[in-house]
């Protein structure tokens, strides 16, 4: 497995140590790998959400009140 060196804050290091000491993880590497998996999942979900909002939202991100106001204005113009 490739090795990477990173700098973290003392609080982050203490949190990693505590997670291992409490028995939740077998090693600090396991804690970091899970954190990276969660980060990657979050990043992918955010990209998916952005794609859905950009491509799939019929409202274009507008609220219902704005859509209703547009509908009413169009209805008045057509009458």
Describe this structure in words.
- This protein is 70% helix and 0% strand.
- It is mainly α.
- It has one domain.
- The longest helix is centred in the middle third of the chain and has 28 residues.
- It starts with 9 loop residues before the first helix and ends with a helix.
- The mean pLDDT is 85.
- It comes from Rhizobium leguminosarum.
- It holds the Pfam family ParD_antitoxin.
- This is Amino acid ABC transporter.
- Keywords: Toxin-antitoxin system.
- InterPro entries: ParD (IPR022789), ParD_sf (IPR038296), Ribbon_hlx_hlx (IPR010985).
Summary tags:
rod-shaped; 79 residues
> Can you give the helix content as a percent range?
55-70%
Strand content: under 5%
N to C succession of SSEs: HHH
Low-confidence stretches: none
Strand pairing plus helix content: what structural class? mainly alpha
- Cα distance, first to last residue? 70 Å
- Arithmetic mean pLDDT: 85
Q: How many beta-strand segments?
A: 0
Number of domains: 1
Rg for CA atoms: 24 Å
How does the major sheet shape up?
none
Q: Could you say which overall geometry the principal axes of the C-alpha atoms support?
A: rod-shaped
State the helix count.
Answer: 3
InterPro entries: ParD, ParD_sf, Ribbon_hlx_hlx
Organism: Rhizobium leguminosarum
Keywords: Toxin-antitoxin system
Protein name: Amino acid ABC transporter
